[in-house]
Predict the structure.
Amino acid sequence: MAIVLEARGLNKTFGAVTAASNIDVAIEKDSVVGLIGSNGAGKTTFINMVTGYLKPTSGSIIFDGRDITPLSPRLITRLGICRSFQIPQLFASLTVYENLMTGVGVVFSGGGWSDSTPLEGTPEQAVDTMLERFGLTTYRDKKANVLPEGVRKLLDIAMAMAVKPRILLLDEPTSGVSADEKFGLMDVVMEAVRAQGVTVLFVEHDMEIVSRYTQRILAFYEGRVIADGEPAKVLEDPEVRKYVTGESHAAH
Amino acid sequence: MKLDRTTVIIAAVTIVLLVAGPLLPAWMMSLIKISLCYGIVVLGMLVLMRTGLVSFGHGLYYCLGAYAAAAHDKLANALAELGEASSSLAVRNVMQLPKMLVDALTGVFGPYDIAVMLGFSVVVTGLTAWILGFLLRKYREIFFAMLSLAFSMILYGSLVKSSALGSTDGFNIAAKGLFGATLADNSLRQAIFVTIVVVTMLSALLINFYLRTHRGRLAEAIRDNELRVEYMGASVRRTIHINYIISAVLAGLGGALMAINIGHIDPEMAYWTTSGEFVFIAILAGTGSVLAPFLGALIFETIRSFAYEYSPNTWQMALGITMLLVILFLPGGLWSLFQKMRRKAA
């Protein structure tokens, strides 16, 4: 399969702390990849580097054969790498519709999007499609600051999907979402991802979610990738069990 | 495109003013003209406030617009003289350009044509804002407000020291025509009134349209969450810069119209208390609609004139109390009152 995103020898240090250490990863097109690891393992740092929010100390990030390491988040977004946030980043005083329209409007304004095919129909139709796809139609005219947490999460992801991503990076999509809502939320997201043909990387602490929705897992520990492969294999890996999923040796 | 309510109201107000204006008593005409001039400046504040930025120095553009309109010939001559001192031929030629332009326009339209004066105001304020914008777009909140204030006080200080422009006294100006037609007395007064109404209402119409475009809508998104705007592929700084320039040009037009209307300008227009009045009206009015600044300005001017007449020593208190009541009961400005009523009716 074609490689769409590649990290080559990524390093990132904050003073004495190593947040990324020699990360070499290649992501195939249309795959769904989970990033796991304990707090501070370097998952979010990895996402922040891919989206241009943090610059790696050394190494490079190749997207579609192009070095995107020096680019700003804005330009990287326009190339087709979009992200959602662990804490939803919404426009609090605007309605759900306006939140999505802001993104759709940016796409419709044109100028420098790598994927020059326009969204289908009018901006209004594009927003309606997103509302429907994410089950947000009933909240259409509600202001973002009054939405329940699960809906805020969905809107946050929908906003990332509204700007024509080719790769979607999700930072803990189910954190803050109740246990009985989380599968529903992930089903909606994955359905939308398939409809738009997007490659997905997501950070997640919930192993049920990771094993159910991904084809591949990258396990992080102290800035390194300690395991990379099919979910079943990675979750069985002794190092992963020791450092990530937190099962002690005494349990055996 | 379907006509929205605001467009209809603007059209109606324009017609009413143009038809009924000449029938109104002089004091009311004067009140309306001053309110419209202030209103367009505050409309500029609104464009900026939508992005979450409040300028405490919009007097800069108000004053600059007025001086550019009133002293465009003096300024062009001064630039040409300055250029003569240079040894470089290129510099000398470039510095001659404004003077050549002024001469050419005077040849076509005659001296002090209202349209030419407004044109110079737009160009000078637009260019100044474009340049200052590169610096100001990096700042937010109190830093933006204070930096704007600093620039306005630099202009104030420079004008106070410019004896050629009348120092603290400023100078009198008189428009002499509109689009090449020479006007005097009553016809001139009419032309000034029509110009003020048309320019302000046209600006309101254009801004109303702009705020509904994709770029215009970004302003409120920026106010709420800059990070997300960047992650949607839009440039926060560019949008702020564009809004800043629009805002400056509107303030400049307000100043130029006021200068033409009053017939006198002085550096006081750039003083921080003048900028303070614009902030006052903007908060009084709210940012809910492009009509709000004009309503706010009308109320402000009405309170000021009546309070000044009936209690000359405590008129500021009346303004203070008004502001207090608005902040306590209508934090979204007077315009939020209409929005509340409409929501109730719906």
Observations:
- Chain B has 15 helices and four strands.
- The first strand of chain B starts at residue 171 and ends at 172.
